[in-house]
Amino acid sequence: MSDQTTGTLTDAHEGGNRLYFVVWGVLLVLTAVEVLLAYVQAFSVGGMLSILMVLSLVKAVLIIAYFMHLRFERSTLVWSLVPAVVVIALLAVFFPDGVRALELAVRQP
Amino acid sequence: MADRANAITMVADDWSGGVHPYAISHKKLGMWLFILSDSLTFSALLVGYSYVRVAARVWPTPFHFLPSVVTATLMTLVLLSSSLTMVMAVGAAKQGDRKKTTRYLLLTILFGLAFVVLHLNEWMGLIREGMRLSSNPWGSPLFGATFFSLTGLHMTHVISGVIYLGFVASNFSRGRSKPDDVEVSGLYWHFVDLVWMFIFPLVYLLSVKG
Predict the structure, then answer these.
(1) What is the mean pLDDT of residues B16-44?
(2) CA B172/CA B102 separation, integer angstroms
(3) Based on the number of CB atoms within 10 Å of its own CB, is A56 exposed (0-12), middle (13-18) or buried (19 or more)?
(4) Which is higher by pLDDT, A56 or B18?
(5) Over 50: is that where the pLDDT of B114 sits?
(6) Is the pLDDT of residue B135 over 60?
(7) Which of A76-90, B69-83, B111-125 has the lowest average pLDDT?
(8) pLDDT at residue B80 greater than cutoff 70
């Protein structure tokens, strides 16, 4: 078993530091795009939220896949972590209630 | 059909005991499990922040592009760079280069400290402008509570990470810990970076003073 572990690790590090520099560069570019969007203020809050969340999810996937090395682990581990994403997505169930609270508040004198 | 039977045998082999189905060390699996639970904590705080924002009539947008958003961008740059030096440290540790590993770890710690200093400076600025846990001059009083608990918990993670990396660096430089320990601490550090990738847009970029 132990030889399997070391095998995976050496494979992943053979690409060397160049891969990490590329990932870092892409993360910086995505951040720059986000900040630029905040500077020009061309979108409504909703549009901005959607764009920022997509960009942030891409950044998160890059960090998890390369920096946290998950791309080079066995798929068993990857699939064991996926349920957490589902659970986090389920938290969105609260938002309709947030809007409802706002409407109730507006009707108050 | 043969492929399917083969796959079933492989899965059965993995999970019937006596082997490590994830092919990683126990420490690393433990860190992944911690990250799993911590990600739920941060998600709850982020959703809580967003919920009260949606439900508030007037949500404060106190962040001027200069200096607040520029500072926050600098903090993002610092944290991303610390992640880069962290993977370099892990790579050096794998090659058994103790000196290089320690140097990269110290660089990571330095970046972490820079982040904390910048963030505390940001906090002090907001507090000087009259922002408190239960009130602020701009709008919904819930802004202070959610902002300080969200960014405060993140800062606590950065500070704990700096202390953790300090221990790992000091142990590894004296040959008292293994490359695997460096990698496990790296997982934690990247996770802290990952969380900031959501706090930065949701809290700062969406609240720029128009």
Answers:
(1) 92
(2) 7
(3) buried
(4) A56
(5) yes
(6) yes
(7) A76-90
(8) yes
Look at B208 and A24 and tell me if their CB atoms are within 8 Å.
no
Compute the distance between CA of residue B125 and CA of residue B68 in angstroms, rounded to an integer.
9
- Is B50 at the interface with chain A, CB within 8 A? yes
Given this model, what pLDDT does residue A7 score?
44
> Taking all residues of chain B, what is their mean pLDDT, rounded to a whole number?
93
For residue B58, count other CB atoms closer than 10 A to its CB.
Answer: 9
| Numbers of helices and strands, H then E, in chain A | 5, 0
Q: Which of B19, B87, B201 sits opposite A1 (nearest CB)?
A: B19
3-state secondary structure of B134: coil
User: Is B36 near chain A, with CB under 8 Å?
Assistant: yes
Neighbour tally for B7: CB within 10 Å: 10
Calculate ∠ Cα A84-A33-A85, nearest 5°: 5
- Residue B208 backbone dihedrals phi, psi, to 5 degrees: -75, 135
CA distance A4 to chain B (A): 7
> How near does any CA of chain A get to the CA of B116, in Å?
20
Fold topology of B25-207: Four Helix Bundle (Hemerythrin (Met), subunit A) (1.20.120)
CA-to-CA separations, A106 to A102, A103, B57, B65, B188, in angstroms, rounded:
6, 5, 8, 31, 44
3-state secondary structure B19-70: CCCCCCCHHHHHHHHHHHHHHHHHHHHHHHHHHHHHHCCCCCCCECHHHHHH
Distance CA B179, CA B123 (A): 37
